[in-house]
Specification:
The complex is a heterodimer of chains A (about 250) and B (about 170). With about 250 residues, chain A is of the alpha+beta class. Chain A is built from seven helices and eleven strands. The model of chain A has no long low-confidence stretch (mean pLDDT about 90). The radius of gyration of chain B is 17 Å and the shape is elongated. Classes of the chains: A alpha+beta (about 250), B alpha+beta (about 170).
Chain lengths: ~250, ~170
């Protein structure tokens, strides 16, 4: 089917969201809570666009809105710009400690108001970390409470038995809200300490014992194969490939 | 419900939890039953629930904190719910909260040390005509003032469950 975005027609397939088509065609729509590994969540609403269908137009989150025949999308209208500015303003007020939010707040030209700022906070509760943890397969963290008290945490805010210290949550966080401290051979994350093991080639600490055990168990790759850091693994692979002769 | 059935130990938890099918969709039902028996959700019971239905503990914890109907702190034998909806608020729900604090030393979300009384605020119980309203366990008290509240506390104190009104 054809999807019209900003006056131009693009190919779209059933099951695509508006954002999927836009990304494929190189049309910029800003996002915060979107990651290609998990698809749209519709939690930050920054990807809001204007959709006209059957003569009526409304604002929708493009990451979750499925494409259909005959709809027309506008990615930048005064209404869209205004709502994005408001979203950035509110998220900045909630997570004023985040460098990214500070930057967006300036870029979007948000106007001053009397809403209080949470200087210490960096989390915008986009849930990407929760999804990453779920995808890794340990689900050590989740959102707790609800409404204005909602936040991300481990059960009872204690060191979670399920956590393997992989730091996927911190890695995926768009606002750098999750503390992960690597000092020497100790990694501290979510109130839990892990021993880091050293790469067998370069000797740099790179992963936790729990993480390697877990990956080994899930992938069936032997432990010994996993004891190299990312860079050394790549070098090792290149070494192996040099041995092959082109046929 | 017999005393033995509500024993707050792993045996008691098992008796309740294993009474439900071990499926994800029964989590809320299990939590309701646990709340009814223990007046809160004990941590060990939540852990057992997660294991039994095959859902990560973090997700069960997330659900337990999401709903106001569930409490992770033990509630009292007598649970006061002060309505703090708009009408009750204007009609003086704060007086009731102050009075309860003066008499029992507990604020919203707290329980007395002897686990006799606990207090929470609710947003609206739909009884605006009789504001300010107070719920004591399941019983509604209309147009409560400081003096009436004192009497109510007296009634429930020392094991009184006010059954004669039912």
């Amino acid at each position: 089917m054809k999807l019209i975005i900003d006056g131009k027609a693009f190919n779209a397939y059933p099951g695509d969201s508006i954002l999927d088509v836009a990304r494929r065609e190189g049309i910029a729509i800003p996002t915060l809570c979107y990651h290609e590994a998990f698809g749209g969540q519709g939690s930050c609403r920054l990807c809001t666009v204007e959709v006209t269908a059957g003569g009526r137009s409304r604002l929708v989150a493009s990451c979750t809105y499925p494409v259909s025949e005959g709809i027309e999308v506008k990615t930048s209208t005064p209404a869209v710009e205004k709502i994005r500015r408001n979203i950035i303003m509110v998220l900045y007020k909630r997570a004023s400690g985040s460098v990214l939010m500070q930057k967006l707040y300036r870029e979007y030209g948000c106007s001053e108001n009397s809403l209080g700022e949470k200087q210490e906070e960096r989390c915008i509760v986009c849930r990407l970390c929760v999804l990453a943890c779920e995808k890794m397969g340990t689900s050590a963290i989740s959102t707790v409470m609800r409404g204005i008290d909602k936040r991300v945490g481990t059960p009872y805010d204690q060191a979670a038995t399920a956590c393997i210290g992989c730091a996927a949550c911190a890695h995926i966080c768009p606002t750098g809200a999750i503390e992960v401290l690597d000092s020497g051979n100790i990694r501290t994350i979510w109130n839990k300490n892990f021993n880091l093991i050293n790469c067998e080639r370069c000797g740099q600490p790179f992963a936790t014992r729990e993480e390697i055990d877990y990956v080994s168990r899930r992938s069936g790759i032997e432990d010994a194969e996993l004891c190299f850091c990312e860079e050394c693994r790549r070098k090792k692979l290149v070494g192996k490939m040099q041995g092959f002769s082109p046929c | 419900m017999s005393e033995q059935e509500c024993e707050e130990n792993i045996e008691g938890f098992r008796r309740i939890i294993y009474g439900f099918p071990g499926e994800k969709r029964y989590i809320i039902a299990i939590m309701h039953e646990l709340s009814r028996c223990y007046r809160y959700l004990p941590r060990a019971a939540l852990e057992l629930t997660a294991e039994y239905v095959g859902v990560p503990f973090s997700q069960v914890y997330s659900m337990a904190t999401f709903y106001r109907a569930f409490s992770l702190q033990p509630r009292g034998r007598v649970n006061f719910k002060v309505c703090d909806g708009t009408t009750c608020h204007i009609k003086g729900s704060n007086i009731l909260l102050d009075e309860i604090y003066k008499n029992l030393g507990i604020g919203p979300g707290e329980t007395t040390a002897d686990r006799e009384f606990s207090l929470e605020t609710v947003n609206c119980i739909g009884a605006c005509a009789i504001a300010p309203a107070l719920l004591v366990n399941e019983r509604v008290y209309p147009r409560v003032n400081a003096a009436a509240l004192k009497e109510i506390i007296k009634e429930y104190r020392g094991g009184g469950d006010n059954d004669h009104h039912e």
